[in-house]
Every structure is written in C-alpha cells, then in structure tokens.
Amino acid sequence: MSVIEISSLRIRTIIMFIGILQNTPHWVWWLLAAVISVGVSQTQPRHRTLRAATAIPIVMAALSFYGVVSLFAAQSIALVAWAAAVLAALRMSQAAGVGSKVRWLAAEQRLLVPGSWVPLMLILGLFIIKFGANVMLAMHPDLNVDKLFAVSVGFAYGAFSGIFLARGLAMWRVARQAQSSSMAY
C-alpha cells in the first residue's frame, strides 16, 4: 500500500467512526455516563448489605443474558456460548480468589467491600461489546444469522457475566460463612 492509500483509508475510517458516533441515540451516552458513575462508585471501600452487594452482579448478568437473547433469538448456539463462558469465567474467577478481600462486619450486619477498579472495567467492557455488536449489526444486518458472530458475542457477554457473578457469589459466601460461624458460638 502506498502512503496515499494508507492516508485515504485512515480518512475513511475516521469519517465512518464519526458517523457511528453521530448516529448513536443520545440515550446511549446517558447510559454510558450512568454505568461509568456506578463503576467509579465501586472504586471506594464501602459498607454494603448482602442484597445491595449482590444486586449489581445479578443485574449485569441478566442484562448480558438479555443482550444475547435479543440479538440472537434464532441462534441457540449463542446461548450455549454464553452459558459456557459464564461457567468458565466463574470457575477461573473463583480459582483466582475474586472477592477474597471482602469482610463481614457482624456488628453492622454488612459487608466491607474494598474499593476496586475491576467493576468499572467489567461494566465498560460489557458496554463496549454491546455497543460494538449493535453497530456491527446495524452496518451488516446479515450478521444476526452468522454463527461465528453469534458465538463470539455470546461468549464475550458470558465471560463478563461469569466474572460479575463470581464477585457476587464471593460476597454471598463471605456473609453466609461469617453468619454460620457466629451461630456456632
């Protein structure tokens, strides 16, 4: 490729990217601001009830599942990929000790959840994949029947969901173990 061809390709890419951003509905940017806000709030240590601490992982997994179903309703292979990725990410996250720094505060009946940038990265990752999949489907509607695309998106959604769920399960486990051991005394 010549320098002129490379420059022309770069210009076309920039124009396409600007077109995508301009044609994105405004509510998507408000949603992005909201998820960033939720993610940033997770960077500070906080006291959480068990219900509140497990709500975000469950909601994110449900949204991920809905994303796969809504995009690939006719392709059950996408759901299989989602489920396989959830299980794999859940197992790997548990093996890596996700949530091991969470503590139960018996006197307050709350969890002490250390601050982490991981939830923000997970939320943004899921948002980017959903945004990218929808852009690709808007540009190439035939992708909704492409098995490789369906499996790839389903797997990516599932992987993020598995990590979210591992965090939620770790918090639930810490609370239940602490409550069980305090009852033994």
UniProtKB/TrEMBL annotation:
It comes from Caballeronia udeis. This is Transmembrane protein. The chain crosses the membrane at residues 72-90, 111-129, 149-170. Keywords: Membrane, Transmembrane, Transmembrane helix. It comes from the Bacteria. InterPro entries: DUF6622.
